[in-house]
């Protein structure tokens, strides 16, 4: 059962990174769109992301619940040492979430739209950055567990693990991944000029993604971030990153040929490959602190809890996944049977 | 104040904020589908307009409930890591089921919001029903987790270790049913009177009476039924508390001395230092009867508990009085509505409508008061008789700033949502074209 739970943990992580990411990315694409394109982008985002908006973010809650129920040691480290960046993530989630709904459901359309729009865009940009910062803190070996170092300062314990260049690069990397996903998703739903616009931003964000990814690896390697050093010598991880790079070529072909579903699947596969690379590098030691590597498989919840959770996830998943699939299908997110 | 105090304040404030949106998110969908149903039956465009207006309300409240709920799922760990580390694996079941319920709710909401003229009419309506049912289910599940904090079960506690964990037993802890029943009713009472009051105000101001009268009727009927059931369920809750948390019962009744045939105090000013209650009305033997169903039963007083296991008395007692007082007032308002069904002339009277305007926030006040009773009454325990709150708090310093951060953020949010609602109503009053 432990592996069922672990599967759902990684599965919801993947879906949050991908679906939540596409959501954040939509705001980023809007943020960086030229003035003329913004209004149009806004409408397309509403059409494409609106119906699944809520659902995309519940993956985060599922992820969190699995962590706290089954992997309390991990959860504890995350909530104690990442208190500050997580609070900022929550701020981002809050403002972009409410701004998105306010701008579409306000009964009166007037100047306040200006504020909703900007809050949505800025929130969409800051959330993945701080998510990236938080994630980087778990793997960069800078967390100092308090019991070991009663003399360390507030800065050492609660700020320095995430507040650094490596963290910022990770944040930017995730933000550009989000934007890349969103642009690829939006191309399929647009026509004529806006299609060109999204193709262009998809291309831009692909380039940004590759460049930031490269800097991230170089920086991590030269500043002896253990995770990156292990990453670079892990053949499986390298192979999947390389494969994901190669897949950019067919992705571009599909986009040109307007095969929007195929291009979405391909972009999804690329994200899976990147995530797989990150996971396989250090499995099961996902948290690397200043003096130890902590396995996710140790100090887990008692067996009865794991079994119970596993069954809940299986049952819940078999109710939810078909519903979600149906929702996406109804609103033409994943499969278009005919052109209408 | 210490870190611990700010952590508590933050927990109380954010939960108190979330609960309002959660209740509305649970109950509004039911109003919406009733109005929608009437539209499908009568094809009266007024009902369509009302449904759409309520729908926009649901969307706005839903998102605010969702983001504050997401923040809470983090906060539970960020503020109380000591609690979550041990309790997480035990009360995981309600939370994982709740996750599933949220998901169902969000999927149904997606269908409902975007399904107009796209989905078959009946199926579309039905997805609205699912929003409500899933919302209530998630409410019940969280409250079950809270019930576990009041009545911990499903594990053995030996030498500071939690062993023999049985998640199902923890979910079905002795407090879950009474608390969930009382809470669900409370959500219906508060939201119904809240929405009814808003529409009553529009009628009072003589704006678009046709529509607001329909809205008022739908909500007040539901509210009245729930308001009558509420005190019954409250009585069950009180008997439950008497059995499982005698210190809490003593605090909420401001009952210091152990006594047979204990009197019930109504009102009263608590003097915590001298352990006296002044300016009260005492009803002889009523407390014994209400708590144990026997006029001569012995009710344990606070003085029989060790000093460091007594909850703050004054807050709990006042909060309890406020809740019960408002409960009675809401029931009376329900009676006034029932009489007005026969006495149509009342509907012409401005004061009739004013009563419901005044009652609008009362249900929510009662909910906040009720939670203060439950949570502060459980102090100093975070898990009753197992773990103290001070042992669970986060080691991160500076919770003061965190508290003020949420205070500012949520105050702005609350103001914005109120302002948005005003705009909704104003546009509702524009004549149907
Ligand atoms: C509209 C709101 C509302 C109204 C009118 C009432 N209550 Fe209440 N009460 C709640 C809303 C609430 C609540 C917010 O929902 C609580 C907090 C925790 C819970 O489960 O329900 C609660 C808790 C609560 C508790 C503590 C339960 C516990 O700690 O486990 C008792 C003893 C009562 N109530 C009793 C009553 C009585 C005798 C009422 C008589 C009229 C009453 N309540 C009206
Ligand atoms: C939404 C309604 C709720 C409100 C308004 C509320 C209110 C409060 C208040 C006033 C406190 C502070 C008590 C004190 O410091 O004296 C508190 C504490 C707490 N509540 Fe609640 N509560 C609610 C529901 C819940 C639920 C459903 C849970 C758990 C599943 C929960 C978990 C906690 C925890 C962990 C604490 C901190 C420990 C403590 O001070 O006891 N609460 N809450
Ligand atoms: C008694 C207290 C509570 C009740 C009755 C309650 C009920 C609800 C309901 C009905 C919703 C659906 C949102 C809506 O329709 O507006 C909701 C949202 C949410 N609640 Fe609460 N809740 C309570 C306390 C908590 C606590 C303590 C937590 C965290 C541990 C929490 C976590 C969440 C989350 C994560 C969501 C968002 C789900 C979504 O995206 O739809 N809630 N809550």
UniProtKB/TrEMBL annotation, chain A:
Cell compartment(s), UniProt: Cell membrane
Topological category with respect to the lipid bilayer: Multi-pass membrane protein
Statement: the UniProt record of this protein carries the keyword Cytoplasm: no
Keywords: Cell membrane, Membrane, Transmembrane, Transmembrane helix
Main location: membrane
Entry keyword annotation includes Nucleotide-binding: no
Similarity-based family: Belongs to the cytochrome ubiquinol oxidase subunit 2 family.
Recorded coiled-coil stretches: none
Domain of life of the source: Bacteria
Protein name, UniProt field: Cytochrome d ubiquinol oxidase subunit II
PANTHER family recorded: CYTOCHROME BD2 SUBUNIT II
Originating species: Belliella kenyensis
Membrane-crossing residue ranges in chain numbering: 6-32, 44-71, 77-102, 114-139, 159-186, 198-219, 231-252, 264-288, 308-327
UniProtKB/TrEMBL annotation, chain B:
Subcellular location: Cell membrane
Superkingdom assignment: Bacteria
The keyword Transmembrane helix is assigned to this record: yes
Membrane topology type: Multi-pass membrane protein
Parts of the chain that traverse the membrane: 12-34, 54-74, 94-114, 126-149, 180-203, 215-233, 315-339, 351-373, 403-421
Keyword terms: Cell membrane, Electron transport, Heme, Iron, Membrane, Metal-binding, Transmembrane, Transmembrane helix, Transport
Family membership noted in the UniProt record: Belongs to the cytochrome ubiquinol oxidase subunit 1 family.
Listed name of the protein: Cytochrome ubiquinol oxidase subunit I
Gene source species: Belliella kenyensis
Lineage, broadest ranks: Bacteria, Pseudomonadati, Bacteroidota, Cytophagia, Cytophagales
């Amino acid at each position: 059962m432990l592996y069922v739970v672990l599967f759902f943990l990684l599965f919801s992580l993947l879906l949050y990174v991908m679906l939540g990411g596409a959501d954040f990315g939509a705001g980023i694409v809007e943020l960086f769109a030229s003035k003329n394109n913004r209004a149009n982008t806004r409408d397309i985002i509403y059409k494409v992301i609106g119906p699944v908006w809520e659902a995309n973010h519940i993956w985060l809650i599922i992820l969190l619940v699995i962590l706290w129920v089954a992997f309390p040691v991990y959860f504890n480290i995350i909530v104690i040492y990442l208190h500050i960046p997580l609070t900022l993530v929550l701020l981002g989630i809050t403002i972009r979430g409410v701004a998105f709904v306010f701008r579409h459901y306000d009964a009166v359309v007037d100047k306040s739209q200006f504020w909703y729009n900007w809050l949505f865009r800025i929130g969409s940009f800051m959330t993945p950055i701080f998510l990236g910062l938080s994630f980087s803190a778990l793997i960069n070996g800078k967390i100092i567990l308090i019991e070991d170092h009663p003399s360390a300062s507030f800065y050492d314990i609660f700020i320095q693990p995430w507040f650094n260049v490596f963290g910022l690069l990770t944040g930017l990397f995730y933000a550009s991944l989000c934007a890349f996903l969103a642009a690829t998703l939006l191309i399929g739903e647009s026509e004529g000029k806006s299609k060109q616009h999204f193709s262009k931003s998809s291309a831009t964000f692909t380039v940004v993604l590759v460049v930031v990814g490269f800097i991230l690896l170089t920086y991590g390697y030269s500043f002896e971030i253990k995770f990156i050093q292990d990453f670079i010598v892990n053949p499986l991880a390298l192979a999947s990153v390389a494969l994901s790079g190669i897949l950019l070529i067919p992705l571009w072909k599909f986009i040109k040929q307007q095969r929007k579903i195929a291009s979405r699947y391909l972009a999804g596969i690329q994200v899976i490959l990147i995530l797989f690379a990150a996971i396989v590098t250090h499995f099961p030691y996902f948290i690397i602190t200043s003096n130890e590597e902590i396995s996710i498989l140790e100090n887990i919840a008692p067996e009865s809890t794991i079994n119970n959770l596993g069954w809940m996830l299986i049952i819940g998943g078999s109710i939810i996944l078909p519903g979600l699939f149906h929702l996406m299908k109804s609103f033409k997110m994943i499969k278009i049977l005919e052109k209408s | 104040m210490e870190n611990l105090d700010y952590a508590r304040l933050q927990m109380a404030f954010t939960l108190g904020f979330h609960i309002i949106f959660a209740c509305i998110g649970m109950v509004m969908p039911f109003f919406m589908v009733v109005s929608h149903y009437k539209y499908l039956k009568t094809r009266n465009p007024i009902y369509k307009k009302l449904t759409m207006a309520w729908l926009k309300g649901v969307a706005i409240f839903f998102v605010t409930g969702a983001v504050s709920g997401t923040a809470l799922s983090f906060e539970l760990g960020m503020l109380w890591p000591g609690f979550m580390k041990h309790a997480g694996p035990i009360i995981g079941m309600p939370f994982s089921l709740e996750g599933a319920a949220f998901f169902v709710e969000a999927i149904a909401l997606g269908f409902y919001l975007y399904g107009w003229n796209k989905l078959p009419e009946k199926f579309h309506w039905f997805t609205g029903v699912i929003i409500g049912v899933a919302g209530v289910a998630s409410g019940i599940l969280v409250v079950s987790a809270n019930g576990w904090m009041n009545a911990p079960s499903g594990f053995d506690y030996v030498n500071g270790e939690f062993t023999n964990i049985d998640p199902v037993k923890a979910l079905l802890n002795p407090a879950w049913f009474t608390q969930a029943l009382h809470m669900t009713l409370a959500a219906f009472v508060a939201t119904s009177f809240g929405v009814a009051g808003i529409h009553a105000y529009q009628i009072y101001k003589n704006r678009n009476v046709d529509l607001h009268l329909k809205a008022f009727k739908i909500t007040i009927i539901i509210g009245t039924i729930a308001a009558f059931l509420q005190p019954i369920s409250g009585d069950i809750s009180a008997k439950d508390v008497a059995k499982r948390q005698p210190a809490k019962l003593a605090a909420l009744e401001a009952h210091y001395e152990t006594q047979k045939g204990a009197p019930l105090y109504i009102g009263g000013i608590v003097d915590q230092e001298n352990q006296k209650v002044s300016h009260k009305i005492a009803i002889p033997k009523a407390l014994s009867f209400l708590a144990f169903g026997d006029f001569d039963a012995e009710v344990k007083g606070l003085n029989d508990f060790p000093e460091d296991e007594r909850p703050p008395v004054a807050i709990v007692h006042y909060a309890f009085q406020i809740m019960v007082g408002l409960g009675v007032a809401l029931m009376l308002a329900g009676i006034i509505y029932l009489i007005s069904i026969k006495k149509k002339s009342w509907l012409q009277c401005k004061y009739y409508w004013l009563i419901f305007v005044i009652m609008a926030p009362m249900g929510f006040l009662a909910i906040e008061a009720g939670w203060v009773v439950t949570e502060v009454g459980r102090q100093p325990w975070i898990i009753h008789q197992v773990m103290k709150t001070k042992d669970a708090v986060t080691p991160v310093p500076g919770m003061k700033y965190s508290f003020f951060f949420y205070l500012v953020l949520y105050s702005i949010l609350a103001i914005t949502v109120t302002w948005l609602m005003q705009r909704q109503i104003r546009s509702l009053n524009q004549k149907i074209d």
